[in-house]
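User: Structure tokens for both sequences below?

Assistant:
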Amino acid sequence: MQYKLFGKSGLRVSELCLGTMTFGEEWGYGANKEESRTIFNSFLEAGGNFIDTANRYTEGTSEKFIGEFVKESQRRDELVIATKCTLYTQSGRINDSGNHRKSLVQNLEGSLKRLQLDYVDMLYIHAWDFTTAEDEVMRALDDLVRSGKVLYIAVSDTPAWMIARSNAIAELKGWSRFAGMQVEYSLITRDAERDLLPLAKYTDMGVTAWAPLAGGALTGKYLGNNQDPKRLKEGSKRLNEKSMSIAETVVKIANENNCAPAHVALNWVRKNKASVIPIIGARSAKQFQESLHCLNHSISDEQMQELNSVSEIELGFPHDFLKQDGVKTVMYGGLYDKIDRSNLKL
């Protein structure tokens, strides 16, 4: 296991992040406590230190399990524990969700209690609620940092323009800024390449990727008559014609490399965008070990090109417009190729 700097925060995190949405069986799938403990310990034994959870995961059981496992490990100081707020823990309670101060404070206190911790290393806004003003959100989060109960803040499932605006406000006010973002990113879902990943690169934000295996669609188990347990429903965007073509290419390259399809899909995320940290989770220790072994494999530049080609998306306006030769000609006086752009972040 190697380690990465999380954006410009200086925080050192493992190149894979342990996803714990499957810790607990309350949602009808997932791992029981003993299986979850095995997954957790094997991640630590492999050198992992970055753990992702949320107040909402398995009705709070995920955080409870992690709290117990961290205590048993006696390695709290080595670990980077990230949780999330915003989503409700009890339905029907009007202020139990959202990004307003009352919700953030209540949700954090609940998470700390379940995790049996005095502080969390990272607190994510789980999603943007569009009912709380940006300055209210950032000031409330800054207060949580200053209280010592949160070390870093981050944001998940939020438009790039809102992240940029919120961080600009924080920087102008001298408040804590979002150190990173969490996005859905895989060979099947590359939408983050339009604006979110360029924003992260340009402003030095760390990035974690959820669903890097597209809910299992990239493992090959939805191809043909595979009888492995399945969770994706028929009609899912992850099972359309293009997605299955991508999955077939992943399986083909896995066969060429004598590895599992999961290794190919995870290593594409790691290699395609070097700053992105895949979140790996599993319902069993066997599944988790298979994903973890992606660190022992690699894919060639030619195979990367093949994967990029089959999964390519249109960036849309204005990105595709600005790439047109005619536009570049009039914008740079016909001298675009003579301009040294090697030091540009974009």
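Moving on to the next sequence.
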Amino acid sequence: MLKLPYIAVRELVFSLWRRVRFGPVDPAWSWRTSTVRDVLAALTDEVIAVPPWLIPFVNRFVASGTPMSLGRVVRVGKADLDGVYAEVLTRPEADLTTVLFLHGGAYVVGSPKFVRQITSWLTWSLRARTFAITYRLAPRHRFPAALDDSLTAYRWLLDHGVDPRTIVIMGDSAGGGLTVATLVAARDEGLPMPAAAVCLSPWTDLTATGGTMETNVATDYLPAGKIPHAVAMVVGDADPTDPRVSVINADLTGLPPLQVFAGGNEVLLDSITAFVDKARAADVEVDFVVEPHMYHDWLTVLPGGVASMLTVERIADFVQAKVDRTVVRRQRGPRVVDA
């Protein structure tokens, strides 16, 4: 873990040199896009191979270097959702659209703080109250701990008077897969469906299939060859094809409208596309957006970039069209304590 700062600086220097010497891998990439990809590739390759006992320390290191919120324009509070901690973000005069946000990080790292800049932008753009939960992480808490926590959080919102027609569940990467798993589990439990869901570069297939796992290695930062190591930490002795974690294998009938984003340069592109095809075959309404020159989870790793801000605008348009505005204006949200 102590090598991570050194690796980041070293790769930054090498990335800049490669850009000058050979140009960008994708001609459409800016200097920032190229450098972020190269640095993240080196760091992710290192992190994903660390011994399981080091993961909590890595998680603290990652969280310590992540950006904060938008400051005074978005208020940060906290809530206990039946034992699941949530960071709650609101904006002044919010109309109480409710977002349940599930962060990414391969079910191994990540936290609400890790995605706070993104949840801040979404909270502001959607005029929402966002509950970003701290679900339990592997390898200490293996599958299905994360799903149990996300479902508990959704139940809590319903039990505290939040109308499901005003709820949107969304997540990035592993959180995108967890979003779909939460919908399926809620449906099977007989709970009402939320208004919609948004999946950003969702990890839908833990078996890592698809041709882009090979063809997009040079344009993404995910170490495709080491994904099985992460999967082993997540599922342990369980079956990685279990539909509760590899949602591409789930029965998707009856799910609410989905908005799914994928990067044209990411290794998960084929598996995400296959998931979208299956959802549409199950008569689920899907707005599928492929950002042609982006790699995995660009909204999180390139906050403030042109593609990221365009993505936020697309999410806002989608959510505004799906949430019941008449209910939003009438309801009150659950009580939140300042952080």
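User: Anything stand out in the second?

Assistant: The radius of gyration is 19 Å.
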